[in-house]
Structure formats: C-alpha cells, structure tokens
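hi! just following up on the protien thing from before. the input was this:
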Amino acid sequence: MGNTIGNNIKTYRKNKGFTQEELADLLNVTPQAVSKWESENSLPDTAMLIPLAQILGVSTDALLGYDSLSENEEIIARIKKTVEGMKHSEEGRAEKALRISEYLATETTLNPGCFEIIKDYVQETANLSMYADPVLENCFPGEEERLGKIYKDAIRKGAYLIGHCADRTLVEKTHFAVAWIYIHMKDFDNARAHINVLPSISPGCIAEKISMELTYFESGFEKMKDDIAKNSVLLFDMTASFLNTIAQDYGWNGETDEALKVIDWCEGIVKAYASMKDVISMDHYLRIRRSLAFFRLVAVKKSGDSDGAIKLYNKFKDEISREDLTDEQKKTVMDLLDNDIAHYGKYT
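and the predicted 3d structure came back as:
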C-alpha cells in the first residue's frame, strides 16, 4: 500500500466493501469529494480524519500512513528471521513453541502497530496451546499461570488487530488462531464466536470462484487460465488441510480398520489432485503425504501391532523412493515423518 492518505482511503474503503457513494453518504459529503481524496486532487479536512478512520475501522495513524506495512518491513523481516532460527533449534517442539510465543509477546509490545507480527504471535500461541492442552499432549504440567498470561496477552492483542486492521486476510487468520486458543482453553463459547465470523464454504459464494468468472467475462479465457492455476493451488491447500484433520482424528481416535479405510480415501484424493504438479504447492504436498503416512502408523501402532507399523513405514519409504520427486524432496518427506515419530512416539 502506498504511503499516501488518498491511496489509504481507497484501500481501506474497498476492504470494508464500501463504494465511494456509500462512504460519502456515511460522512455526509459528496461522492466527488471522496473521489478527489482518493485521486490526491484534494485532502479531507482535518476534522474529517477521526470520523473517516472510525468508519473505515482503522486508526488515524493508519489512515495517514504512519503505521503502514512498508514502514514495518525491516522490523518484520528481523522478527521473522529470529523466529525461523528458533524453529530450527535443537529444542523439542513444545519448548520451541513456548520460547517463540514469549519472544513474540515482547516484540508485539514493543511494536504495537505491526499487525503482521501480532498475527504471527496469535498463531504461534495457538500452536503452543495445542502442546499445552492437558487432553492432548500436556507438555507443560504446573505451568498454567505462565501459559495463562500468554493466552490472555495474545487474545488481547488479537482483538486489537481485529478491531483496527484493514487487511481482511490478517483479520481472518487472527480470528482462526484465537478460536484455537479458546478451544484449547476449553472456552468453547468464545471459540464459537470467532469461528462464526469466518467466511464459510457452505453457501458456495466464494470470492475466488466468481473472481475467475469476472476475469473470463472481462478479459477472456486465456487470462482466466492464470486465475485457475493460482486458485487451484489455494484449493489444494484447503483440501489438504481438511484431509489432514480428518486423517488425524481417525488415526488417533477411530477403530483401526475404519481409520485405515478413511486415511486411504484421503490419500487417494491427494494423489489424484497431485497428478498435475503445477496445481499444487509442493511443500504442502510433501507435508500432507507425511501426515497421512504418520496417522496410518498411529492407527496401527495404537492397536498394538508394532510389526505392522514397521511394515507400513517401510512400504511408504519405498513408495516415496519411486515417486517423481527430487532426492531433496524425498529426504524432506521422510525427515518430516521421522520427526513426527520421534515426537509423538510416546503417545502411541
């Protein structure tokens, strides 16, 4: 986003779904005035800044460009680099999650207008809450007070982002992560409140779908093909996420035969989708393949069939070795699987 008030008004107006006429009505000005602001032919009166910011759901600093993402790029890059280094440390997963969340708690206090990092903080805290959940992994017995402070802080900062950030994607990701924190806190009413404001696929009124049609009618099929390719990757990512959840729950909780049947079905969908490599994210493909293999191992191992689990592991390793992947990709997927086995083996 350009660091100009006119461009900021235009961006935030569109993010709120207002036309120039609708914004003008809310401010009791003419549509021509809004048009002139956005084209930089004139500026709104200073007395107009506060009501304008309130209607657009942003701070006056954001409207004026003082906390625009461009001014935070250096901070974001530094923090993300530090977090990435923490993720590659030799600590266990749970310990890394705790250390990262506490680090981001400090950084978000020092940089309260950096919405990208607040979003990361809430997401990392959601990840931490999974490891801390006593029903799941219970990695931090006796640390309830320490974790509670992190949860409360992340939820508070997430609420600030939701109330002030004009970037719909950041807002939705934050709602999603806050919902997970509440789920692991067993506060299901607040979790549901955040879930209920997220977009749903059930009506079929998906922005990406109608956007492809808009491109077709506006620019023709050849241009639409670019949108199809981009949205196909998004669709695979969403599908893989759904299948991961299904396989995970059946692997850990289902009867062995039922779990294996469902996981085989999930894998069939993934393989069919991935028959065209240009419509998938290879990183997500490798991760879902490892997840399905791991949850298949869980289903067999928890039934007491250790030998069967070893056979499944070797079968998967052989299958990956023969798949159309680079040596590095083959190593990556097996490393991911081995890492899961090392971490979760104690639970099976």
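Residues 69-195 form one domain.
The chain has 17 helices and no strands.
cheers
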